[in-house]
Amino acid sequence: MDNGLPWNDPEDLDCVPVQYTQPGDYVIGGLFSLCTTPITGRREGECKCAAVDEMSCHLFQVMRLAVMEINRSDRLLPNVTLGYHVLDCTSEAICLKATLYFVSTKKGLQVNSQSFLYNDKTNVKAVIGPMFSSIALSLGPILSPFLMPQVSYGATNEKLSNKWSYPSFFRTIPSDNNQVKAMLMLLAKFRWNWIALLTSEEDYGEDGGQRLLELASQYGVCVAYKGKFPTATIETRLKDKVWIASEPMTYQAFLEQNAGKLILFPVTQPKLSKELKSELNRKETVKTDMQNETKAVHGCQECSSVIDKGVDGHYEFSVYSAVHAVAHALHQLLGCDSGNCRKDAFHPKDVGILLLVELQKVNFSLLNQSVYFDENGNHLSSYDVVLWDWGVGKVSPTKIGFYSPASETFEVDGSLINWTNNKVILIKDFHLYVCQPCPNGHWSSKGSVLCQPRTLVYLFWTDNVSIILLGVSLLFLLMVSGTAVVFVANLNTPVVRSAGGKISLLMLASLASSCCGVFSNVGEPTVATCQLAVVFALGFTTCLSCITVRSFQLLCIFKLAAKLPNSFDFWVKEQGQYILIFLCTTPQIAISIYLLVSGLPPAEIINNDTVMPICNTSGLVLNLSYIVLLNLFSFACSYMGKKLPDSYNEAKCTAFSLFICITSWISYLTLISVYRGNPAAFNAATMLTTLFAIFGSYFIPKCHAILIRPELNTTTHFQSCIQLYTMQNNTQPKLN
Description:
Largest sheet: 7 strands, mixed
Radius of gyration: 42 Å
Number of helices: 22
Mean pLDDT: 75
Oligomer: single chain
Structural class: alpha/beta
Low-confidence stretches: 1-13, 40-45, 112-121, 283-288, 291-299, 421-433
Shape: elongated
Distance between the termini: 94 Å
Strand order of the largest sheet: 8-7-6-2-5-1-13
């Protein structure tokens, strides 16, 4: 962030968040949801807290007393005083404002990356919190550019493990990914492989449910139903079941409805020391200490009087260990192992960034539990497996096992579970349950009940390849049209007459119609577009027939006329060239009529998540088979006429172009036999290659002679070429 945000003074905001501060040599920020409801009003720019959240205020007390404990210690950070700056984080908007205070200068909310990285006005060196993943995901883009260490005590979303997006994020609680694995291991142990999955409305439930769906098949579990968790009364048909739930679920009201057995996976939390616990429970002492040690700025006075009444121990150790992790990192950074911390070892502006490096390396024991972070900033805490069941008129929790992500150890004592009051069905044979097929156009992964639409794969009109192919096709049509104009204008000249005269115009029309068939490869295949492909085959066959007839006609004139004069006279009088063109084209016409009558419905190549519509390959095989045969015959006729007079001799170029056609189609057939993608682009490219090969070898030399070398387009030139050819043929027998 190069430019400061427009908030130059706290009064520019709606109100100043509830906050508590305690000065020190190094200050730790804290984000706690101190209010149970959003702000209800403001007075002189101050936020008014409608009601306090007892749990969050209790966790704030844990952080405050952890800081006090560290300040009293002679071994951890000696001669260094820690302070704190705690701000309310009730909602995402309020939490964003609170975070801006941590990265702003002392004069107000003037936020600038340079003011943070290169000045010492920002005293907060690390942030503890927030609790919720949704808020942590929003705060990451604010704190990450400043590389301010952030240690959350409750955010479990797996996305926060991405160090590219959240380089300064750590947490003293494991990610949701480990909890999902623990739940699936429990299902696999009891062979509960046919389950219903209920998720909450927010991102936490959606992300966790999606992760469970992705991993379920690996554990042999089929998700038979997926829905939303009931927020009100549990339906009768859902009662008396075995429920497996994540830790944040509000299960107390759920259990009161006698919905069934409930198995939870709370994070293993060591109990705080008796001295610290006792200090948390002393209401009057807490109030006095807070008044003496804490400057409450726009704070809720009720928060200072909250004690551990009815508040469970969830997240206590997470907050406690987060503060100690920052303290241990600062201890190593300042070189405090010698017994005297060097406060002047680093400039204050460098402490925050260097603290991030040291925080990644911390590894210490706290309340008989190791505290460290992996390469993604996660703390691999263990999970308890806890069963909530009904005893004699009351609900009682029982620890029945544990799961350790670090060692992948999962243990559950099934004998501690009383199944007599529940109708539990253990499905031993998973294959007995046959999944229903998905509707057309949908697919489902193995073991899942979710049908997802398949993606249509074809050559879109807007694809770069399509644009190139269409551009080349239009260029070819322009070239053919231009050549046709030149030939019509010079129809009675020797060059055009030697090229076949009106037959050459038929060839140009055939090439143009064949080029239109290229468009059948672009867009989603339909019956109409597949029928358009027949136009290519018919036009290309007509063009090959003309080449074949033209080569055969020249052979008759120069080599067979003297030997078979009667046959040659019949050929000339009865327009034999057109008869032969019709005979060569008739088989292709029959094939085309058959294909058009059959309708040519597109076929589909179906993979797991894609469906690729293509034109029927049986029509392609029939067309190509006849085209290849005619191509070979035309090639033979062209090769036999390689020694004709130069003005009539296009045999070499024609033979070469036909050779290109044959190799192109053979290469195409070989490619599609091994290629699993859409062959439309290769088909279109092969079509254009063959069309350009014939056009370039047959018509380009003729256009060159007409337009650039007009001296070659004279009767005198052609007569001289014929005389030279006759003399050469007459002299060869004498020499022999």
